[in-house]
Protein 1
Amino acid sequence: MKINVIKDESNELMVEFDTSDFTVPDLIASQLLENDDVEFAGVAKDHPEVGKPRLVIKTGKKKAKDALLKALDQVDDTFSELKASVSGKK
């Protein structure tokens, strides 16, 4: 999945996903909201037929890009655990 960085500032990041599916951006935003350093995380949803989802992240002291990378690692860990549970490997 490709992304296009729309805004990249220390405490604010906006990325546009090259898809019309909101599942992954919503999952990442949900994970970001569990991080105390994140003040806002949400997905801008234009009309699905004409727009692409944009993930917006705003942080306080930490860098927004670092918060995104942490959230992606956490999502990856969650799916690794799920995969291990399904396959019977621990």
Protein 2
Amino acid sequence: MKPEEILRIVDAIHRDKNIDKEIVFQAIEAALVTALTRQYGETSVVTIEIDRENGKVTGTHDGQSLDTAELSGRIGAQTAKQVIIQKIREAERDAIHDEFEEQVGQMVSGVVTRFEGATATVQLGSQEAILPRSEQIPGESYHPNERIRGTIFEVRKVGSRVKIILSRIRPQLVQRLFEQEIPEIADGVIEIRAIAREPGYRSKVAVISSDNRIDCVGACVGVRGNRIKNIVEELGGERIDIVRWNDDLQVLVPNALQPAEVDEVILCQMLGRGIVLVREDQLSLAIGRRGQNVRLASKLCGWDIEIMTREELDQQIERAIAGFSSIEGLDESVAERLVGEGFLSYDDLSVIEPDDLMEMGGLTAEQVDAIVAEAEERASQVEAAAADERRKQREAERIAKATADADAADALVAEQAPESAAVPAPESATES
């Protein structure tokens, strides 16, 4: 193998495969070592070096120098070629892996080429990626030659190939779409602080502006909602709530629960919980359909949020004080302090930090252990009772439904039955 041929091969592979020249040189050196080792025997020690400037090959065999003629004569050309191809493929795979590994979390656009089961194959330039069913937005369907966007979720080496997995359900997709559609976010004037998402249904995006003259919410919505409309369409109609971020939870929590109106926010620092009080007519709106609004607000704020009316809170406080006071070792004053910190159930008390309870009530470690054990036992009993009540409710609903269906069936049969033939009245006797 002549020096000029080596340089030509290295340059061609570098340009065609976009692989660093140093990697190609190392691959050729490894190929030559492998070929010579097979010639001299597996126990021999062979070293090969290629001059990066002129392509000259030098090497040693068991410490003895090999001349160029011997190298050319002893190297098995086919073996060297196979090893070089293998090394180049590995280097190409590594280069592709590194290229896409840097793009994890970034948005890419590709064309759907085919389906295998529920998994879509997407062409990203010269590389193929897959969009598994688990990473697709619920209810969406894709068609061949359709262009879609998603974020790179995972990149991993599989044999001689690179497996690229896309996702359309991660919050990063919402963020990248905002960055693309809203120049103020791309420029850094508006910042996305948090995103909470339930793919295909609803997302909440918290934003803040570094320029007081720019309304962060209005800029994201756009004139007549044109900016947010483009994002919603890309996400298949997913509803997006834009929330004004505030470092003060007393402000952020009501913002996150919009459109519901909040009366008061009570922060329970020890539990990381926020109790939100609303009026009766705002209760269902604050909770949302199947708890979606409060669930997303909790994710957005990073706090567990519990919605209730003031009357419900007063009832829970009364029950909690009575229940805690009935536990041996807890007097009413400690029970009131616990309730003041947001502990409203036996389940809450069962996860309290022992040191906190010891300090709060002046208790010993043994007393705290006994109190926590009692709270755990009562929490289990309450859960069992609730489960039994739910079972009875379902059974009652099932019986009521069966009864209603039976009544409806009887009524339908009665409506469809033919009218009974009229029986003529007997003729009256003729007067004599």
Protein 3
Amino acid sequence: MKIRVIHTSPPFAELREAAAAASTDDAELRDAVARIVREVAEQGDQAVEEFTRLYDDMPVDRIADLRVGPDELAAAAASLAPALLASLHAAAANIRDFHERQREHGFMDLHPDGTLLGQRVAPLRRVGIYVPGGRAAYPSSVLMNAIPASVAGVDEIVMVTPTPAGDVSPVVLAAAHVAGVTEVWRIGGAQAVAALAYGTRSIASVDKIVGPGNKWVAEAKRQVFGRVDIDMVAGPSEILVIADDLADPVHVAADMIGQAEHDPDAIAWLVTTCPALVTAVPREIERLLERNPRRDVARAALEANGAIVVVPDLDAAAAAADLRAPEHLEILTAEPLLLAGRIRNAGAIFLGGWSPEPVGDYFAGPNHVLPTGGSARFASPLGVYDFVKRTSLIGYSRARLEAHAADVIRLAEAEGLFGHAEAVRVRLGGAGE
């Protein structure tokens, strides 16, 4: 296994280029997606039907045929093996319990003079969730995107998922049933994103679009932002493992493969203070890949985007992790919680050898929709807070307006906004009456 090895220390001159997110600006893709978005916005159902026939090889005559009814969702759940359905329900319960703790309730501050200042928190009315489809099934994406919306109180949760020349996986439909999805369409790609953003005769527009997808979906989300809100423009999946000399190289290797098998663009880094892992981990990766059906994908990702970064101490390891700002950060050290306290930038942090990243992907409860491409420097995991909006409440009494009038007028006039100042003056018997 050929994984690049970097020996470095702060200020990490050797790491900065490797840590920089790759540019996602593709002029040809941008123009192609813009055409799809424009045609769906202008032609509605007809354009969605045409693009679905073209890109998904589906013999669709009318868009209504692409809707999955509530009875089909219930039937899909009933068709699953009981143990799998039980696992879906257990995961959903964990996710719901965690996200219930994120609820915001707003506040009202009533002053003695009768003034009211506050903030109202209200759910979005209708949101769309994109679930990748085709060759793979992602019920976990359904749960992680839909349940926070449900907890937030969103009225309508619309799921779109592509089904190239086939049907939606029963386990994905079952997950939609378990998560409380209210509407499902068998469409995908940029045309599905455009339909959710602009609406068609058959598909009502939404307020926000969330969920992962390929580069066409990511670009479409980028282009419709502003018409609707989006969660993020997601890049390739990432993991960074910090390991000291107590870490098991088999665990490190398995965890790096777990991310690398997503796709050839996935990113897997090991940051270590232990020189012995430089040889032990690639050896274990090679051994574990032999029994992985997706070995070719994982190998391509590790050789192109993998790295073993050797640092002098754990303080340097924490600084390297902060620089990379990974989507997933595993800490396999003697005192993982202590080290986690030194790290600001990560989408999710997995503490210790008994917390492999897949427990976060599927079951623990925290959301697996995480910032990628270094955006953990400023972005957060998907949560209930992404499905609500906040409205300020301002109710002044006459006494408070009189007390604050001079300050407000002075500030308005400093900005050259006479009308702003006048709106206060006329209420207090000043010029203008």
Protein 4
Amino acid sequence: MKPEKMKPSLRIQNQNEKALSGKALAVLLAAVLDKGIPFRFKARGFSMSPMIQDGDVITICSFHPEALHLGDVVAIFYARTEKFVVHRLIDRKGDFFIVKGDNNPGPDEQVSQDQIVGRVKRIERNGRRIHFGLGKERYVIAWLMRNRLFLALIRKSRMIKKVFDA
């Protein structure tokens, strides 16, 4: 296929697969959001599992700083390490936020508002929209994470599910 006929994509599903990450992804995301257009891409990694799984398509939108709330899932760019992540806001310390991947044992470093590039608005898995984790329950999830109870609850629910599935 000629390059001019290819649709722009972060991941091309063939032997010529290309992926953007880190600074390149954050710059592209910021440029798209600055134009008022939501940005969709395929999530990679397991830090937000089970809410966002490897391969889910997530949509990130721009945000108003005063509209950020604990429990929101946000896109963050760490300039020092050129690392781009999507994690949850679990606490606020003055002008800084504490963020954490839902599946991570501990929180990330504190982030300032200017490190937050956008907010996750939608999650799709296998073509179906995933609602849980972005609604009002996000406040409870943030509280559970702040109090180090979320992972224990997830692990216990997985064990219960295995018992009932057996």
